[in-house]
Design goal:
The structure is a homodimer. Chain A is built from 17 helices and 2 strands. In chain A, helix 4 packs antiparallel against helix 5 and helix 8 runs antiparallel to helix 9. In chain A, about 50% of the residues are buried. A two-stranded antiparallel sheet of chain A has the order 1-2. The radius of gyration of chain A is 20 Å and the shape is globular. Chain A has about 350 residues and is mostly helical. Chains A and B meet through helix 5, helix 7 and helix 8 of A and helix 5, helix 7 and helix 8 of B. Chains A, B: InterPro entries: Isoprenoid_synthase_dom_sf, Polyprenyl_synt, Polyprenyl_synt_CS. Chains A, B: Pfam families: polyprenyl_synt (PF00348).
Chain lengths: ~350, ~350
């Protein structure tokens, strides 16, 4: 199979090992009903073009299902048991992407037009909602010999989903507002990005270890991974290379997103920087030279250094957490490779 | 309590009896989290104004939860057990309304601006999604002494939700298309409207009777109630009185909706009518005199008589079904009153 040809060379083992099994399970979950709606979902997943003709486009990293399956397996669990939850998590992630793209008017993802951009808002909205129901449906395929596992996992995913949506609301509410501090930002990303990532690790640990203290530790690890992931995303959205990220340089600045680099610069001691960013962000549209000026201010306030430092702090923390939770030496090394990837990734 | 003051005088007992208990349970489900998002949900439910200040606005008929609780109770079940599912069904219905209004660009519901009309599409989209998660959450509050009941009910609601969304997709796909026949229309409404109504009666029967053949019969009754309900809605959307429906006269014609009256007229023997409607529906915008002309054609093809006849046929069918399914004489009479209301309602 040629899955993920664009990404594989750089992906750590944890993110590549389960790609084939996940792809099969996801294709099974997005069943072949006869209405075109399901072709829209397959397009979203990178499996077909806008006419429903199969192809292999660039895919997401699949970090949520991989984390779920890896955690389960590394704790001695059966990944078959965790697969329905892993599929559910990936579908919920895609549901959120489809709706997010509508909300943010994002026209491109992974170098391809977004769903609303191809089919309009009404159909894209419906496609997102179907993705969400298919996620629920996948959960119902969990082994029925342990109904408590199903209800516990469903409850965790449901709560994560609620937090994620609340986070999206906070994010929208913040847009254009100039007074957001680091604390509010951290709360927002812990909801918008962190909740689902956290639940991936948490559910994997519950299925792998049958709950208890180990699962709680993994929940905490998941929280930290969520922060790492989003802050790194902010770095890439500001300084990332177009060819790697699939987004234009400074794309978050053009969209006047309140990312951590911007919030850090605003909270800097230098009053003029604060005012200048507020002024630039209150403009109708942001031009190339405005982007350059914002990047200069971010340089002057060492915003990149600050953000990358936070990512590395979380990485160090997680690396410590992982020492005493029953992983084999091999699993620890694999997890460490993943953590290093999250610190250094360019896409 | 002054709930439903606009509606109560005309509502049959089945739709008024559970209003207070439902209102309390719904208010409990839409908990008081601190972000404004939840005020949007309360506005949607008719409990508060756009600033979050409590008021009593016109509410929906609550037909889904009422059907669920009534069926359960009339079969000898405990409505306390069915309440979480009833709440879930009403929240899913409201989730679908919020997203439907975005898709159809509807500006008014129950004489008040719709959510996207007040807060914009991004926030309304999120509000709909939260409503959906709260629906799931409500299901989790079902009595845990019977985990099979929870998983059976969840599965039914989930499948109904999927069908409903597929129906929304069909509806959007049909818009502007001229070649939709009665068969396609019936399939679309059985998904879009029928699935959730069907599941309301079905789940009520399962909880009230512990499943079996009775529940299957109620599932079929639910299918027929769904057709009755939507065809009557089409009649009201075409000929309804603004003061009763809260929508402008001929509102479905102005929106070029492929309602049953229109499809019936198109399938009439008279070629000129077919062409004229196709021509009117392909115009950029529909003016008052166009609406009048469509109404004339609907008169000439006896569309109203045809649609009302179908509603009455289903009503007769359901009235027969209800004779031998273990209802008391009193429950049969109450159900019959509901059926008559669905045939004759003006809102």
């Amino acid at each position: 199979m040629s899955d993920g040809v664009h990404l594989k060379p750089e992906l750590p083992l944890v993110l590549s090992r389960y790609r084939d099994v996940m792809d099969l399970a996801l294709k099974d979950a997005i069943s072949d009903r006869s209405i075109f709606l399901y072709d829209m979902l397959r397009y979203c997943m990178g499996w077909s073009d806008t006419n429903g003709v199969p192809l292999e486009a660039e895919k997401g990293k699949g970090i949520r299902p991989s984390l779920c399956l890896f955690t389960c397996e590394a704790l001695g669990g059966d990944i078959g048991k965790a697969l329905p939850a892993a599929v559910s998590l990936e579908l919920i992630h895609n549901f959120s992407l489809i709706h997010d793209e509508i909300q943010d008017s994002d026209e491109i993802r992974h170098h391809r037009p977004t769903l609303w951009n191809v089919w309009g808002i009404p159909k894209a909205l419906v496609a997102g909602n179907v993705m969400r129901v298919l996620a629920d449906r996948s959960m119902f395929t969990m082994p029925s010999d342990d109904p408590k596992l199903l209800s516990a996992s469903s409850l965790i995913v449901s709560e994560a989903c609620l937090e994620m949506i609340e986070g999206q609301y906070m994010d929208i509410s913040f847009e254009g507002g100039n007074s957001i501090g680091v604390d509010q930002y951290m709360k927002m990303i812990s909801h918008k990005t962190g909740a689902l990532l956290r639940s991936s690790v948490h559910i994997g640990a519950i299925i792998g270890s049958r709950g208890g203290r180990v699962a709680d530790t993994f929940r905490e690890i998941g929280v930290k991974l969520g922060f790492m992931f989003q802050i790194k995303d902010d770095i890439l959205g500001t300084w990332g290379d177009t060819a790697s990220t699939g987004k234009p340089v400074g794309s978050d600045i053009r969209r006047k997103k309140n990312t951590l680099p911007i919030i850090h610069a605003r909270e800097s001691q230098t009053q003029t920087y604060q005012e200048e960013i507020s002024e630039l962000y209150s403009m109708e549209s942001i031009q190339d030279h405005h982007v350059d000026r914002v990047l200069d201010i971010l340089d002057a306030t060492e915003a990149r250094h600050y953000c990358q430092g936070l990512v590395e702090d979380y990485a160090l923390d997680v690396s410590k957490d992982i020492q005493n939770i029953g992983f084999s030496k091999n699993s620890r090394e694999e997890f460490q490779e993943l953590v290093s990837f999250l610190v250094d990734r360019s896409f």
